[in-house]
Amino acid sequence: MSSRSKRILELCNNTPHKVPVGYMSSKKDNVTITTPDISEKENFNILDLPVDIVNESFIETFGMIDAEILESVETTSLAVPEFDNMEIVHGEVSEVEGLSEATNFADPEFECSDIVQNQTPGVEAAAENAGLEVSVLKEMGCQKDSEIQSKVTKYRENSFSDEEVQAQPRKRLAGGNLKKINQDLRMKGKQYIGYRRPKNQTNTFHDAQREPRKQSLGCSSQFCIKSSKRKCNEVDESIRQDIFKKFWSDLNWEQRKTYVASLVMKIPVKDKRNMMNLESRRTGTLKYHLKVGSVNMPVCKKMFLSTFGLREWQVLHWVCKSEHGIHNKKPERREIGGIVSNRQSNVFMKQFLNNLNKLPSHCCRKDSKKLYLEQSFRNITSLYQAYVQHCEKSNEKPMSQNSLTKMVKKLNIALYQPKKDACDICCQYEEKNISEETWKIHQAEKERERVEKSKDKEEALTGTQHVLTMDLQAVKVCPSVMASTAYFKTKLCVHNFTVYNLATRDCTCYWFDETSSDLQASTFASFIVDYIRKHFNCEKPIIIYSDGCTYQNRNTIMSNALLHLAMDLNVTIEQKFLIKGHTQMECDSVHATIERKLIDRKIVLPSDYVRICEESTSKPFKHESVMVDHDFFTNYNNVQVYKSIRPGRKVNDPTVTDLRALQYSPTGKIFYKLKFDDPYQELPMRTTRTKPTENVVLTQLPKERLKIKNTKFDHFQKLKAVLSKDVWPFYDQLPHYE
After folding, report:
1. Where does this protein have coiled-coil stretches (predicted)?
2. 693: pLDDT confidence band, cut at 50, 70 and 90?
3. Measured between alpha carbons, how far is 96 from 222 in angstroms, rounded to an integer?
4. CB of 582 within 8 A of CB of 446?
5. Cα–Cα distances in Å, from 215 out to 262, 293, 304?
6. Could you tell me which residues come within 8 angstroms of residue 534 by beta carbon, excluding any fewer than 6 positions away?
7. Cα 501-504-506 angle, rounded to 5 deg
């Protein structure tokens, strides 16, 4: 109900009503009826009637009280003028919620000059404050008068305003929790609403009416009267009622259990008739007592149960769960002894899952931190079977499959890799398009690759060699803003080439846009050569891990650039290529960190990527970010010691994609491997120079910034509308075709 409706009801209930002059009081159906005196019809005033009208007889007569107000008014007094020739015209309460829609005056021309003059002050104030239109009686002899019309207009204008009436804050009523209320009633032995479950249904309904605890009649058995061991007839009825009352009013539930258990004695069976010495379900006899004063009076079971209003199975349960008359408290979960063994089993299960080879997602790192099992478990059942076998070998008791499933979810492990991370050969095997033998060979090569990389990393940690990983991050765009205009415009491409040192965890990110250089082999050769020259001055061997992308890592230009660097620094450089579909490397974690940092970030310049890259991590070291321009890149096309790095010459001979490792010797020779277990062999190709380091002039790759298309430049001019003006010069100065 609104605050205004409440205010109206308060005014109505608090208004003192008096029986005006010319009215008669009578009683009808236990309701006070105040009626006008017919002899003084001229003095009758409708506003003199009391406002607190809540009786049904008034509704039948007038039909104008809303249900909301009817339920809220507290008083039951009623003043009903009983005239057969009376016609009342409904008024309205302006702008009040919950009231019925009222009509206007039935006769707009009808006027009564004496209606407002003789009304009681309290009712008039209530009518004015509520904006209530008065009702009139046509057949009471009232005359038309313009004064009543102006008065009614005044009532309409004086309705409640928002400033005068402030909504009262809603307060939670005490005892509003129905479940708690019924629980307290049940504990006190009073009537409450319980739960029920119909047969053959799983739904539970909270609508079952439960009767209060009642004390039934005592024992009237002739056996108890004649027996000298029972005192049922000696317990007075008033004592029984006093025991029942105090039992349900003064004690809580736990105290009742203890009290009942102290009055029931469990005596072992003395004579056993079973001559076969078989086990019997009967373990003893229960003897019941009622405590009268300080004496325990032995009584029968019926007398005991009827006195307390309890049921047989309830008392039996309390007695069986008690010891020395004290009810045993149900042990908490942390006190249960089986939890210790379960914790040990959980630790063993966790160790089993942690020992399995896992990899993060290669292409979904920014969206998920889930780890994927390398082993080819088809489902959780196959994983559980492997766990059971492991438990048998370790003499451990396996836990349930459900526990294993929960542990897998807790450790954020998944059995299936995303499709974009899946290897082509593995997918072909799942679809039964290749033989199992081919797939096993592929798996063996993958495992050998992991072993090779782990071995090189361990040696790098000892300081005997340097091990690097390098890769190109997915292309980024600039500007990157949340504007609808940007969705349909081409943007500037920005790239990041990352080099990661496995031993020192040092990382350098080379950022460049499409106007600085394109994605040719000399671009990537410039990055790795620059990193090696800056960070390695000793003659330790250098090993570089990368994927097998031909235009980026496995090509003639890259090989000749590394060979030239090996001869110049007098150091051996090895380049090892990972198997397609299984190229997860440490530098990918750097890319994932940057991707997560870029979520919901606004990028307006390529240099923003450099700043965010430096902010992406601080442990163990910050990522070194470098923004390079076109004058950074070196053209290695002129350094052609080897024209080709193909290990074969004839048809069906190994090709470039079959290379697994390349070794660049300071002597100017290149050696290759087709498998990691194979020894290095010299590349069977003629060199173009007898002395590769002589007369080699390295030139700058692009002599000036590369131009973009005119369409893309026009799109940048349109995108400036959603960018700040301080970045406009960058897009205006971009080189482009006319």
Report:
1. 434-461
2. low
3. 73
4. yes
5. 20, 20, 10
6. none
7. 55
Residue with tokens 């009637």: 49
Least confident of 80-94, 167-181, 259-273, 463-477: 80-94
Residue 501 phi/psi, 5-degree rounding, is -95, 120
What's the confidence (pLDDT) of residue 321? 81
**Banded pLDDT at 471 (limits 50, 70, 90):** very high
Other Cβ atoms closer than 10 A to 29: 9
pTM given for the model: 0.50
C-alpha 106/C-alpha 88 separation (Å) is: 9
Per DSSP bridges, beta strands 476-478 and 507-513 are unpaired
Q: Provide the token pair at 710.
A: 């005119």
Looking at residue 229, its pLDDT comes to 86
Please tell me the distance from the alpha carbon of residue 302 to that of residue 245, in angstroms, as a whole number: 18
What 175-179 contacts at long range (C-beta under 8 Å, 24+ apart), as own/partner pairs, is 178/206, 179/206
According to the model, what pLDDT value does residue 150 have?
Answer: 58
Coil vs helix vs strand at 404: helix
| 239-277 pLDDT, tens digit each | 999 999 999 988 888 888 888 988 998 888 776 665 556
pLDDT digits (tens, 9 = 90+) for 527-573: 999 999 999 987 899 999 999 899 899 999 999 999 999 999 999 99
Average pLDDT over residues 493-521: 93
- Backbone φ and ψ for 376, nearest 5 degrees, come out as -90, 70
Report the run of H or E that residue 573 belongs to, with start and end. Answer: strand 573-577
The enclosing H or E element of 253 equals helix 253-263
Distance in angstroms (rounded) separating the CA atoms of residues 733 and 493: 16
Q: Which sign, positive or negative, has the C-alpha torsion 396, 397, 400, 403?
A: negative
Lowest mean pLDDT among 34-38, 365-369, 395-399, 458-462: 34-38
Token pair in block for residue 479: 């500007």
Burial 569-589 (b: 16+ CB within 10 A, else e): bebbbbbbbbbebbbbbbbbb
Is residue 692 packed enough to be buried (19+ CB in 10 Å), middle (13-18) or exposed (0-12)? Answer: buried
